[in-house]
Design goal:
CATH topology of chain A: Folate-binding fold
Number of helices of chain A: 1
CATH superfamily of chain A: Folate-binding superfamily
Order of helices and strands of chain A: EHEEE
Largest sheet of chain B: 7 strands, mixed
Helix content of chain B: 10-25%
Number of strands of chain B: 46
Largest interface: A-B, 22 and 17 residues
Strand content of chain A: 35-45%
CATH class of the domain at 167-285 and 396-484 in chain B: Alpha Beta
CATH class of chain A: Alpha Beta
Radius of gyration of chain A: 14 Å
Number of domains of chain A: 1
CATH architecture of chain A: 2-Layer Sandwich
Oligomer: heterodimer
Strand order of the largest sheet of chain A: 1-2-3-4
CATH architecture of the domain at 167-285 and 396-484 in chain B: 3-Layer(bba) Sandwich
Shape of chain B: elongated
Distance between the termini of chain B: 80 Å
Chain lengths: 68, 981
């Protein structure tokens, strides 16, 4: 059990009736940057809130964390 | 048959430092023959002393293999010990009565009839398996049966495997040191003296590293200078013992370093997880195998292996040795062996630094080496010997450093790969640094240990950690040595290389092994290159070199150098393949083992215990599986009344002005129009339209909903709701009240009679009809009563504050006693729900199941505005409307009954013409119906009422089949009259 749960890249949900490609990209494609990523995190063993963190995936350095 | 003697010619005279006790003998068997060993012997040392050279058979060609590294690193001595496969005979101590068997051989490793495979080796080129067995497709079952027997190493004995106890040990420390050689031990001691909590992990039985079997500690640290063997071990042990805060773990292999300096180490069946602020890697160096024909013959071994055998176990590894080297290291080893009484016929030096240059181009001998074929001055000659010792310059054991993120660098002068620039929080010391001059390494060990401790304890000043040339690891210094102000060594003026930097490929014809684990020869690497696999990484994957049990410890850099030589590149540009955990194989049992997880008990746990419940685990929860008779429990529910503890359901209270709209947003069905006092089924999907969870939503007030979820899903559902609410402006609060409420489901034709005795509420079919959700007192406790029936009978799901659970449970059993009420468990519940064809998400659905194909199309409202999963589900529905589909989904989850007495396993495959077309997700015997019933995913053509299909019993490919018949209507009370009564 880890203190934080990773919740994936911050993305914008497509508007209803968006083309299929847009939904496919939202659901199945990730940018997975080698560098700074803005992602959702859940403080499971703590305040139990979701927040967004900017983190460098190369160094694991957290640059910024804030409530959405 | 008498046990082979241990004191025969196979032993050297007693010498101090040996780790055996010659006064005690231990008996064991190998491939059915009895042997005896001295206490302290490893299996390999005892067998070597008894004259056994062949310990295993190779993976592909079944070639005889013997001791190669004697350090627990290579695959050559893997044996089965008391039913546990792949035990390394060279590190496993003999225990009395041990039953040791050779692996990958039939009938024994000495006489392996499967060695016939080598005759066919011209027919088994690289990539053979990839190319050959894919066609014709219909023959695959036949191929599979044979390949399964031949593939892999060792056999898992399920009985002995389950009997193994595995433990997880979690340690936290300031500094972890990997490797207890002189450098690692001194670093650990220094870190401890500086006040750090230190964990020292080592895969050998005692500290001291190579000092135990070779060489003496150099000057540089007065505490150990000049010491060797037992004196060195004793001094290091004394230093460790005198240093508070150092935990030394012997016989433990660090197999991986993960994110955040998390070290995984296995010791027997225990797994250690060590979280360290700073890691000091002191894994040392080891000779690499040399390339020559038949370089895998028993008798060909690393020089260090021969020295270990002789010094640690008093075993004579052979009588006459040829030493292959590229410089001083081999000469030194030869001198040591000579002193131990092992004749060295010749030292063959590829560099000829002291005399004529030569090389060994082949080994002769069948079961064991008889001659080394030496080529020098253009002439070849055979030198009689029973040992060929490979003594190239030891190469740093950098795999763990590479896992830390340190890039390997090729040191052209030395001809070896060394660690590149270190990364934050990681230090290297000793031979692993690739620096020459052991004296300095030992001296700077103390400085590195102290610096690591300072960094871990936060005493290092900010400026120096940030500086480009400062003390912190990874900032400018390669080995951390200048941390102590020691200058970096100059590269030597004369190249000492040649350690296979340009392997003697011309001579390396025939069977010259690059990777002994996977039987990959130089020819196979050539073959892979010829087929166009040009990069080292693709050659690795195609040839499987470095992918065997040794994880590249023997062949990682060797394969890179062979590749470089064949492509005319430099190893510097070829590089190494990526090093990944595990560095050493770890048993799945050790990894899986028991986890630290909470056990959740419902407030009724003691009551179930008193009733004689058989327990099952569901998520973290303990639930009663049954109380003795599943059939009786089912009968009670159908004929009288039953109670089941459903406290484990997840419960959420969702309130606020926008609660109804929010629930509409979360689900394909609608809740904003649910009347107060009513409950409705809910199924929840993600945006891909995949079923996540189901349960119920009850409206208790205009702005107040009570939501139930599946037992194991409640955390995920809670987080799912929280995620959609994060940053939202909706006026909604979702509170997880799972632990606040206990829940009991009362079901059966007599249920109304029972509850009527405990409440003043109107429980008549008018006052509390099907799908009513009423708040009121039951047995005096404030309750939420939901009139729902998962098990298909008139039912009341009663939620009460957890503290009242026992009281309400007892009251229900009292009130129903005359009626014949019975508690029922999960097994009966599962039978009863299958009679009603009620699905369980996760059991009957998977990560590809949408509610429409799962038979829940009625819960998907097309006329709703946007909600999670809407567009995906619309796509599915649009597909159904296509004329060629005629309203049929690709596949459907349907009920079925079995024609016959068999009960197919859950997960059993539905087949047609030998092809898998579907699968059984649930199947139970229903005593009520007198037949087995279940649910299965079937192609829509088959998923029609009355269609018969074939189910394979069991999960494997072999075995018998039975017939299922599709039933689209629920088996029990199809019109729901009893449910609604």
């Amino acid at each position: 059990m880890y203190e934080f749960r990773y919740g994936g890249e911050v993305q914008k949900r497509p508007a209803p009736d968006s083309p299929r490609e847009v939904w496919t990209s939202y659901l199945y494609s990730r940018t997975n940057p080698a560098g700074v990523e803005r992602a959702w995190w859940y403080h499971r063993l703590g305040c139990q809130r979701w927040f967004q963190a900017e983190r460098d995936t190369l160094t694991n350095r957290v640059i910024d964390a804030r409530l959405p | 048959m008498t046990a082979a003697s241990t004191t025969a010619a196979g032993r050297l005279p007693f010498a101090p430092g040996e780790e055996i006790d010659r006064s005690r003998t231990v008996k064991f068997t190998f491939d059915g023959r009895p042997y005896s060993a001295y206490a302290g012997d490893t299996i390999a040392s005892a067998l070597t002393a008894a004259g056994v050279s062949v310990l295993s058979r190779s993976f592909k060609y079944h070639r005889p293999r013997g001791v190669l590294c004697a350090a627990g690193r290579c695959p050559n001595c893997m044996v089965d010990v008391d039913g546990v496969p792949n035990v390394r005979a060279c590190v496993e101590r003999v225990r009395e009565g041990m039953v040791v068997r050779g692996q990958n051989a039939w009938p024994s490793v000495a006489t392996d009839l499967e060695a016939v495979f080598e005759r066919f080796s011209p027919l088994l080129p690289v990539g053979f398996y990839y190319k050959t067995f894919i066609r014709p497709r219909w023959l695959w079952p036949a191929y599979e049966a044979v390949l399964r027997r031949l593939a892999g190493l060792g056999t898992v004995d399920i009985r002995s495997a389950t009997a193994q106890e595995t433990r997880k040990v979690n340690l936290h420390c300031d500094v972890a040191v990997i490797g207890a050689g002189p450098a690692g031990t001194l670093a650990a001691v220094a870190a401890g003296e500086a006040g750090a909590r230190v964990v020292l992990i080592d895969d050998q039985a005692a500290p001291g590293g190579h000092l135990r079997w070779s060489g003496a500690a150099p000057a540089g640290d007065p505490r150990v200078a000049g010491l060797t063997g037992p004196a060195a071990v004793a001094r290091l042990q004394a230093l460790l013992g005198a240093t508070p805060g150092v935990q030394y773990i012997s016989d433990a292999t660090a197999f991986g370093v993960y994110e955040g300096n998390l070290i995984g180490a296995s010791k027997g069946s225990d797994m250690y997880r060590v979280r360290a602020r700073q890691v000091v890697v002191a894994t040392g160096a080891q000779e690499r195998p040399s390339l020559f024909r038949n370089n895998d013959r028993p008798g060909v071994m690393l020089a260090s292996a021969a020295l270990r055998m002789a010094r640690l176990y008093g075993v004579r590894p052979g009588r006459r040795a040829v030493v292959v080297t590229d410089g001083d290291y081999g000469r030194q080893a030869a001198e040591e062996l000579g002193r131990l009484g092992i004749e060295v016929a010749e030292v063959v030096d590829t560099n000829g630094s002291r005399g004529e240059a030569g090389r060994v181009i082949g080994a002769r001998g069948v079961g064991r080496v008889s001659h080394a074929v030496v080529e020098a001055n253009g002439r070849r000659r055979a030198v009689a010997c029973d040992l060929i010792l490979m003594a190239g310059r030891p190469e740093p054991e950098i795999a763990l450093l590479a896992q830390c993120g340190v890039r390997p660098r090729y040191d052209g002068a030395a001809g070896v790969f060394v660690p590149g620039e270190l990364v934050d929080g990681v230090w290297a010391i000793g031979h692993v640094t690739g620096e020459p001059g052991e004296g300095e390494a030992v001296a700077s060990a103390t400085a590195v240990g102290r610096a690591a401790a300072e960094a871990a304890l936060g005493r290092t000043s900010k400026t120096s950690t940030a500086g480009a040339t400062a003390v912190a690891p990874g900032r400018g210094t390669r080995s951390g040595q200048s941390a102590a102000g020691l200058g970096k060594h100059e590269a030597p003026a004369t190249p000492r290389g040649g350690n296979g930097a340009t392997p003697a490929l011309a001579a390396a014809g025939g069977r010259t092994f690059v990777c002994v684990c996977e039987d990959v020869t130089t020819k196979d690497i050539r073959g892979a290159l010829d087929e166009g696999f040009d990069s080292l990484e693709t050659v690795k994957r195609y040839s499987t070199a470095t992918m065997g049990p040794c994880q590249g410890k023997m062949c990682h850099s060797l394969s890179a150098r062979v590749h470089a030589a064949m492509t005319g590149a430099s190893p510097a540009s070829t590089g190494l393949t990526t090093a990944r955990p595990p560095f050493q194989p770890v048993s799945l049992g050790a990894l899986a083992g028991p986890h630290m997880s909470p056990v959740r008990r419902t407030p009724l746990h003691d009551r179930h215990e008193q009733l004689g419940a058989t327990w099952m685990d569901m998520g973290d929860w303990k639930r009663p599986l049954h109380y003795g008779s599943v059939d009786d429990e089912c009968r009670a529910v159908h004929e009288a009344a039953g109670v089941i503890d459903v406290t484990t359901l997840g419960k959420l209270e969702v309130s606020g002005r926008d609660a109804g709209a929010f629930l509409d947003w979360l689900h394909p069905n609608r809740f904003s129009d649910l009347r107060v006092g009513r409950v409705r089924y809910r199924v929840m999907c993600d945006d891909a339209g995949i079923v996540l969870d189901d349960g119920t939503v009850a409206r208790l007030g205009a702005d107040r909903f009570f939501v139930t979820t599946g037992t194991t899903a409640f955390d995920a559902v809670d987080q799912w709701l929280a995620w959609w609410l994060a940053g939202s402006t909706r006026d909604v609060r979702a509170v997880n009240v799972t632990s606040q409420y206990a829940a009991i489901n009362l079901a059966g034709p007599g249920a109304r009679q029972v509850i009527a005795r405990l409440t003043s509420l109107d429980v008549s079919s008018k006052g509390m009809p099907y799908l009513a959700a009423i708040e009121g007192a039951v047995a005096g406790a404030a309750a939420i009563i939901l009139r729902i029936g998962f098990v298909g009978e008139l039912g009341y799901e009663i939620h009460v504050p957890a503290d009242y659970a026992v009281h309400v449970w007892d009251s229900l059993l009292d009130a129903g006693r005359e009626l014949g009420i019975r508690p029922f468990g999960v097994e009966a519940q599962r039978v009863l729900r299958l009679e009603k064809q009620h699905l369980i998400p996760g059991q009957d659905t998977d990560a590809l199941s949408n509610p429409i194909e799962a038979g829940l199309a009625w819960a998907v409202k097309e006329d709703k505005p946007d909600y999670i999963g809407r567009d995906a589900l619309r796509l599915v529905l649009d597909g159904l409307r296509k004329p060629e589909r005629d309203g049929r989904a690709h596949s459907a989850l349907v009920g079925f009954e079995v024609d016959g007495p068999a009960v197919p396993a859950e997960g059993a495959v539905v087949v047609s013409d030998g092809r898998a077309i579907g699968r059984v997700t649930s199947c139970k015997w229903s005593a009520t119906l007198g037949r087995a019933i279940g649910m299965a995913w079937l192609p829509s053509g088959v998923a029609q009422e009355g269609q018969r299909f074939t189910v394979r019993l069991g999960v494997g490919t072999a075995g018998t089949t039975t017939t299922g018949i599709v039933r689209l209507k629920s088996f029990y009370d199809p019109d729901g009259a009893r449910l609604r009564s």
